[in-house]
Specification:
single chain, mainly alpha, 13 helices, disordered C terminus
Length: 297
Amino acid sequence: MFGYIKPFKPELKVREFDTYQAFYCGLCRQLGEAFGPFAKLTLSYDFTFLAMAAAGLRKDFAGFGKARCMANPLKKKTCAVPCADLSFTASCAMILFYHKLRDNLADSSFWKRLLYYPILPFAASARKKAMARFPEVDPIFSKMMAEQAALEGDKADSIDRAAEPTAAAMGAMLALLAEDEIQKRVLSRFGYLIGRWVYLMDALDDLEEDQKSGGYNAFLLKFGGDAPESADLAEIRRYGMGVLNVTVAELGAAYELLEWQRYKEILDNIIYLGLPRAAREILAKTGGKEGPDAAQL
């Protein structure tokens, strides 16, 4: 994914940050052991959140252990030990990486494709291994990429339509964690809103780049029509932040319906502090000001 779902570190207790870091390191280790050292480059905050959420819902968890890190092999670090939830998360990361790579190959210039092609055999091999463990994941991301490509080909200017493939995919992916039908419905809604929020964030983050390059961006098409290069970015940001506010509010409501067995303090931090902080960072990065709309986030 994109790296937007992360905690707001200043408000975490030391033990909470250490726990979060242990999941981050544990997922990194799982990626390396399952798919090779290169797979660690796909590590992100978003998938760390998924791993922690999966473990937080379980009544039992494998726990933590000490392991050496390639970045500092002389010192052992605390890591979440390999388990089904980390395996699931790592597999999702690799399957998504493969489909994103294929999408980049289809959309990029000749010279950029030369950079991507050497990576394709590794990505295909990792996807094959991941599919052997969790075959139900690949169709989710395959469908997402096909639907997204169709929307971009049609130059859809609806924000809701543009966000739908990512939202639906995240909803389907999180639903796989459910242990009963009620939890499945809640996780599906929770995941849907997470996917929607991530897509909106990425589109707002890419406003300037897409406006210069002519890349697909539903916000630019909505506000610029046939001339997205003339769209008012300040107006887009104000609108975008309002949409993010609504999405986060709905996301929080779904989140509170889930029965968390552990790590709720850390997950609370991510949902109620980390997501709004990430949105404010995007606003500042793209030249916006933290006015009244941003302050509500």
